[in-house]
Amino acid sequence: MENEITVLFVSYHSDDIIEKSIMSIDRNIKIIVVENSQNKILKNKLEEKYSNVKVIIPHKNLGNGAGINFGIKQIDTIYAFYLDVDTKVFPDTIQNLISAAKQIKEFSILAPKINNFEYKKECYMDFQKKSKYSKMKFVTGCALFFDLKIFKEIGFFDEKIFLYYEENDFYERCLSKKKYIFLIENSKINHKGNSSVNEKYKDEIEINRNWHLMWSTFYFYKKHFGTIKAFVKILPKFTSAFFKFMVFFLINNKKKRDIYYARFNGSLNSIIGKKSWFRPKITK
């Protein structure tokens, strides 16, 4: 098993969090961390403490999808298992995914089941309650297992997307090539959710997330379903964000004002065709 798979993390100011995830993984399995906040102290710490960990630092903050691409280009095993930094695996999680990969063979993604989380029926292609391997239209992007040969046939994550919808875009391309996504019922993880960045940066990260959620929503729907569908999806949110920004501006609620301005501005930039340029204003 150890020679077949590499675990991949993309971190950004995650030094308070990532070790818990690393410690849940077998020490014989290779781990690559793409360190988007360019923290060389974290790189030295992790590489000295864990012999199976390699930290690579890109020249700038790549975002999530491009960060995954950057890491995958460094992997030479058959399989890669991307994990958010706020996840934890169990002793049999990875082995059960590898076993499933060898049985299913033609797949684009395998996803473990997340404890205390249930997918809605519309996420399934063919909902069968007792199935070991459920064929899916959508899985959450916190834990994605790839056969790298098939991954490269489908193509890397769209690097125009900095954050949000990068996995949805990949899923659409997978399904269009009849490379299916499977939920593996006997492979489980814990996922805390929305806690991949150190708590002290939460306000700035919240603004960043809202900007990119809106930018990526319009971009994704326009790319895959056309401009009209994209406008139908974004306009109610765009209008709501503008009016809420005005209200919170008038009552001088800075936190809410900044969030709704980010939503409005992210939508506007995507509509007029500007790149996904916004980045968190975090200094070391």
Ordered list of secondary-structure elements with their pairings:
Elements: E1 5-11, H1 18-23, E2 30-35, H2 40-49, E3 53-56, H3 64-72, E4 79-83, E5 87-89, H4 93-104, E6 107-114, E7 133-136, E8 143-147, H5 148-154, H6 166-176, E9 180-191, H7 202-225, H8 227-250, H9 254-271
Parallel strand pairs: 1-2, 1-4, 2-3, 6-9
Antiparallel strand pairs: 4-8, 5-9, 7-9
Biggest sheet character: 5 strands, mixed
Number of helices: 9
Question: Which spans of ≥5 residues are poorly predicted at pLDDT below 50?
Answer: none
Average predicted local confidence, pLDDT: 94
What integer value in Å does the Rg equal? 19 Å
Q: Beta-sheet strand percentage?
A: 15-25%
Helix content: 40-55%
Count the E strands: 9
Distance between the termini: 39 Å
Order of helices and strands: EHEHEHEEHEEEHHEHHH
- Helix/strand/pairing category: alpha/beta
Oligomer state of the chains in this structure: single chain
Q: Please state how the strands of the largest beta sheet are arranged side by side.
A: 3-2-1-4-8
- Choose one word for the global shape: globular
What's the short version?
The chain is an alpha/beta fold and 284 residues long. Helix content is 43%, strand content 19%.
Structure in words:
By secondary structure, the chain is of the alpha/beta class. The chain has nine helices and nine strands. It has helices spanning 18-23, 40-49, 64-72, 93-104, 148-154, 166-176, 202-225, 227-250, 254-271, and strands at residues 5-11, 30-35, 53-56, 79-83, 87-89, 107-114, 133-136, 143-147, 180-191. Strands 3-2-1-4-8 form a five-stranded mixed beta sheet. Strands 5, 6, 7 and 9 form a four-stranded mixed beta sheet that branches. Strand 1, helix 1 (18-23) and strand 2 (30-35) form a beta-alpha-beta unit. Helix 7 packs antiparallel against helix 8 (227-250). The longest helix has 24 residues, at 202-225. It starts with a strand and ends in a 13-residue tail after the last helix. The mean pLDDT is 94.
